[in-house]
Design brief:
The chain has five helices and no strands. By secondary structure, it is an all-alpha fold. Helix 1 runs antiparallel to helix 2. The longest helix has about 40 residues. The radius of gyration is 27 Å and the shape is rod-shaped. The chain starts with 11 loop residues before the first helix and ends in a 9-residue tail after the last helix.
Length: about 140
Amino acid sequence: MSDYTPTRRATDTERLDATLHLTDALTRGALDGEEYNDRIELVNSARSIDQVTATLVDLPPLLPASTASEERKRDDLREWLNEWQYWLGGSVLMVGIWGVQSFMDGSAIKFWPGVPIGIWAVVLIACVFWPSDDHESS
């Protein structure tokens, strides 16, 4: 009797899952671009599930979807708060320019910084309701 045991054929879903795992490993720095491409080719040409899993054995486990989603939300919030820091810096600069102009004129001139500061703030607030398209395809 032969010791040969046939392996199960890989499904398209299993190949897709392996591709997502490889992509996750690439984005986390576990693979470089060349090795990623080589492994993707192996996954796409694999016939058995053993050939698919062989491309994943040395990779870190996938992050749970909720953890990745929470990380993305934290990164988005951090980025949004950084934008508010730029807004504050720009506002201080514009008000400073207005103050110098008023001082040089000898009286308070029309508060022109209110318009750009206000528009900038409205745009930042609108970002909460209309998030960027960067993550919609994920």
